[in-house]
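Appendix B, example 12.
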Amino acid sequence: MLALLPLIGALAPAMAIRAGRNASALAAGSVTLAALVILGSLAPAVLAGEVVQVRIDWIPLLGLNLTLFLDALGLMFAGMILGIGLLIIVYARFYLAKADPMGRFFVYLLLFQGAMTGIVLSDNVLLLLIFWELTSLSSFLLIGFWRHLPEGRQGARMALAVTGAGGLSLIGGLLILGNIAGSYDLTVILQNREAIQASPLYLPALLLILGGCFTKSAQFPFHFWLPHAMAAPTPVSAYLHSATMVKAGIFMLARLWPVLSGTDEWFYLVATTGLVTMVFAAVVALFKDDLKGLLAYSTISHLGFLTMLFGFGTPMAAVVGVFHILNHATFKAALFMNAGIVDHEAGTRDIKRLGGLATLMPIAATLAVVAGLSMAGIPPLNGFISKEMMLEEASHTVWWSQPWLVPVLATLGATFSVAYSFRYIVHVYFGTKRTDYPKTPHDPGVGLWGPPAVLVGLGVAIGLFPALVAGQLVEAVSRAVVGGETPYYSLSLWHGVTPALFMSLAAIGIGAVILGAHRPIAAAWRRLSLPDAKTLFDRGLAAATRAAVAFTDRTQNGSLERYIAMFIGTAVVVGFAGFSGFAFVAGDRPTTPASPMAIVAWGALITATLLVLLHHRARYLSLIYIGIVGLVISLGFVHLSAPDLALTQISVEVVTILLMLLALNLLPKTSPRESGLPRRLRDGALAVLSGLGVGGAAWAVMTRPLDSISAYFWENSYPGGGGTNVVNVILVDFRGFDTFGEIIVLGIAALAIFALLETVGTGASGRRILAWAPDTPRSPEHHPMMLVVATRLLLPLAVMVGLYIFLRGHNQPGGGFIAGLVISIAILMQYMASGYQFAAQRLRADHHTLIGLGVLIAAATGLGSLLFGAPFMTTAFDYFSLPVIGSFELATAMLFDIGVALTVIGAVILALAQLSQVAQSAEKQEPLPADAAMDIDPSRATPRPASTEADQ
């Protein structure tokens, strides 16, 4: 419930917006608060060491299970996601303008919140990956919320491209881990450290996983998307880029720390990337004039800080990483919201246009000073404690036999962190007041400064009383990360006179000096003309697009012949390559002697196939030969004792041939010569090779012993499904879900035909239809009287046959699909004999309704079994007795078969109706009176134009 509540609750603000903006914000806040309350109720047990687990098996053989677990690491992240999310909802209510669609904003926010919560609670890695990609999609919607801004759209696309690609990398890595561990459950994977690190797939898995983590957490060189995501509204930046989205990569590093850390590969890849990112981003942040740009690069730097700590691979560094995750969330979310306050009240985020705001906005200034000092690592705030602990760990870390390198670079990163933090405070809130602010600055209402004040207060409390406020949580989370007991450590402001203390004092002092010399240093920085990552990304994307377009133009030029040749050619190459890789051993299964009739039928099949090849340009003649092929296959099914398949084949053949005849009526009767001799030789070679390949594969399978599951169906058809027709029971019970999917596809295909032909009468195609003229002689007898009378007499008989086939289908050959085809043929014959208008005026059922009703009935039948605790599509049956009628069986499979039949009838008639309407337009027929017996009324004085075969 905790994982699903934000996702389900995302509907609440969308519906509540009709009652006003306050109602929408209240609905979103209530959902988040409810989830937070549930989490709080579980917190005491989790902090005591208990792991709360929920498991729902779905497809155990594939490892697809809904498994969730809440340990201390998940508790801390879920608390940040929900707690800061609640503050962001309050902040956003007062930040967003009246023109902003607040209901949509909160829907996106809750979707993202639910996805993030799902990540930190997932036990099954496949489920985790779904939530991971859902965060990319929902963050795309949030970053591009102001869709009228080009930079917002571009930032959203860039974030989606980078983090989405990283997600694909993560998928590969986690699947490899699951394969090594023999399970896709994280709780199992985390118990297989030795097997994973000893596997030759360890390094590929590590590289793929780090690809996902580094892109999500904006590590160099994948950092560039984060600054451009600042085009999002400030509530989005404060939420995504302080405690949620960018922390997802850090969460994965912490979650997989027990099985991946401790190797040289881990240390040099993770720690080095984090250290480079920390220093690089801190330097860049100092020279950013946009408040959110400065905070974006400071976020990247602190994410590097955390990545470096987990990359060290020591339990103590992991403890420090856990503590700084918490501290960073407090001061960074507060600073982002503070930047939004400045923009909201002063009208700009440009530092060059700000200054002297402390006296004009004292509340905002106080919050900014405290949060900024915490970000700089100034005592007695929480940022100082975790920064000094980080420097202590760095002082003991040796990189490539160089004991000085990591401490010096870590101190350098901390120095620039002090400098940009001081710049945020001094250049925005102190100095001379200006007279050219875009707006008159003043403190906002409590709705804007209240949420950051809560976070600032928490940061101060952690700084003054770290062990009391955060000690239990940090200890529990650290044990979850390291997978055991943690080393001794002390959460306190004073750790004695240590190297870290001097490194910290040096960082503060030098940082203050850098701030004092900021103007000349910034001028020198601008003269460097360093390459812009966004420009490089845009150029790379443009080059990739050009290459893709060129490749597409060469391979997908609209030629179906080329597509089929490429597909079959690839299949032939792959098939023969696989065959040649193994020694062929002929099968020893005895063959069945062919009867004379089977040989004759085989000869007819081959002859008809060759005739199709020889006369394929004559379209009507080709259809006749194709019909012969279908008929012979139907007879083959009869010979092999498969009456259900025979009935289905012959019914489908009749319907297909009739519809194709109607479609071909308006087309040229012969096909143009498609290609020259060389291409025909190529196509012939491909056809022969593919035919030999498929035939050889079929022969190899049929001449070998086969362990079939058919025995199971024979044994369980009657006791389990209540029917003696095994084929029908398989379709409506054992494999009912497949059948359900197939009728949905059939309905979609019919709707696609409708959509394609509905617009044929417009534009260029419409002009061609109006200009169409018959290219073959027409019979003077448009609707032969004998055919009209015969089809009308046969209609009720055909419908009765269809009903009979339907009712007997569970125990004898038949069923809903065949019955639907038989009834469709009967209706189709009415269209052919009496014309489209006559049949359409008398067929009251709407084709679309039939398709929708059929699918809904089939779905309702399947869902009904769930109400009784049975699997989806399970059949229930029993026997009843009535006077005169006697004993009979009723099964829920009959309802499912009704849905199948209705869908089939609706699909066939919809396709027929659309083809007939096109034919009417081409024939330029006038509307027919409702009481006319047929399209051609002999009593009319003026004969109408000859109708087409499409109306016959």
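The chain is about 70% helix and 5% strand. Confidence is low (pLDDT under 50) at residues 935-952.
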